[in-house]
Amino acid sequence: MSTTTWAIDPAHSEVQFKVKHLVITTVTGHFQEFSGTVEAGEGFADAKITFEANVASINTNSEQRDGHLKSGDFFDAEAFPTLSFTSTSFTKDGSDFKLTGDLTIKGVTLPVTFDVDYEGTATDPWGNVKAGFEVKGKINRKDFGLSWNAITEAGSALVSEEVKLVGNIQLVKQA
């Protein structure tokens, strides 16, 4: 079976995370610098996926919070400048997919599974073939050594352990 190589189009993609703050609101952040490739057969069968994000590119629209997230309390961007993902399986789940692989954050590698919605394939006005996907999942940040927290006067955690991950990914077919 022949395979096709696809690359993430960062100008038309976003990689976000969502975390509960004070148990009452959700803070959303994203990585501004990331890349990835997909090697896939027809219909993305048995795709092999790699992804990497620059931790220093984290953005939550708060310079102070971003600095804290880059510190040793969380990502330790100086010692661990990237987070990465390498797939171990990409399987059909109805009309969509289940993506399983190894996620590495702060030097800790653990298996994770994401739900992937295939949004379709189209050709842009310049003749580039594009494919769209939405990737969704959850991780426990403490599993990856992102364990800093504080307790409020009411006794609740300042930052939840559960982190929702959402990627809206546009791939471009490589020549």
Explain how this protein is built.
The protein has 175 residues and is mainly beta. It has one domain (4-173): Lipid/polyisoprenoid-binding, YceI-like (Lipocalin), CATH 2.40.128. 5% of the residues lie in helices and 58% in strands. It has one helix and eleven strands. An eight-stranded antiparallel β-barrel has the order 1-4-5-7-8-9-10-11. The protein is globular. The model has no long low-confidence stretch (mean pLDDT 88).
Mind telling me the CATH superfamily name? Lipid/polyisoprenoid-binding, YceI-like
pLDDT < 50 runs, ≥5 residues: none
CATH fold name? Lipocalin
How are the strands of the largest sheet arranged? 1-4-5-7-8-9-10-11
Helix content estimate: under 10%
Largest sheet: 8 strands, antiparallel, barrel
- Elements, N to C (H/E): EEEEEEHEEEEE
- The total strand number stands at 11
- Strand-residue proportion: over 45%
Tally of contiguous helical segments: 1
Structural class, from secondary structure content? mainly beta
* N-to-C span: 18 Å
Provide the number of structural domains: 1
Radius of gyration: 17 Å
Strand and helix layout:
Layout: E1 4-8, E2 14-21, E3 25-31, E4 34-40, E5 48-54, E6 58-59, H1 63-70, E7 82-93, E8 96-105, E9 108-123, E10 129-140, E11 159-173
